[in-house]
Amino acid sequence: MAHARDALLDAALAALTDRPWSAIRMADLAAAARVSRQTLYNEFGSKEGLARALVRREADTYLQGVRALLAAPAPPGRNVVAVAEWIVARAAVRPLLRALLTGAWNERLPEPRPARPGARPAPVPAQRRADAGPPAPGELVAQTAACAGERWAAGCELAVRIALSHVVAPPPMDTGGAGPDGRSRERAGQCAEPESWSPMTPAMTRLIETILSVETTSPRKTMP
What is the pTM of this model? Predict the structure, then answer.
């Protein structure tokens, strides 16, 4: 049933483009995914279970992207900078990821509530994992840094935190406005994945590169 599960998660993410989570109906998602309502409830148990699964998948997809960038055939320092730039671009068009990374949830998003204590474990293994809850912002940053390996973990964590400061408080020209289709950037980009990304402000990119340069040339081999 993996295909049905992915189709339902895709339908839920697409629905968030035009509606807040509170206005999304399970019956509509089942119809959009072309599965029965029973299949939906078999997979997720409830709407809150679906929310937990949707957020869990967003975190997993993000970490997969981080690993792919860090594995690129380029100097490790350049890959770390690329991760920071990518985080800024991806968070700008994926509100769920932005909330995961910053903890800034709003009423439009399906902020996942923990499964009830003592609740019967979900029969679907993927849902049992989702019900355990997504990583908190600090945990997700730590997991991102760990992807860089011990040698680059400290520099990667600092680069990610600089990137997140850019996510939380972007330059004025990056806020608001309309996307190519006339809708707000946040709503238009809910499901979008940029084919390429513009770097953060050159000053912030240079700052990260300078920090990493100091780190690699430090006799102590640790962040100063």
Answer: 0.81
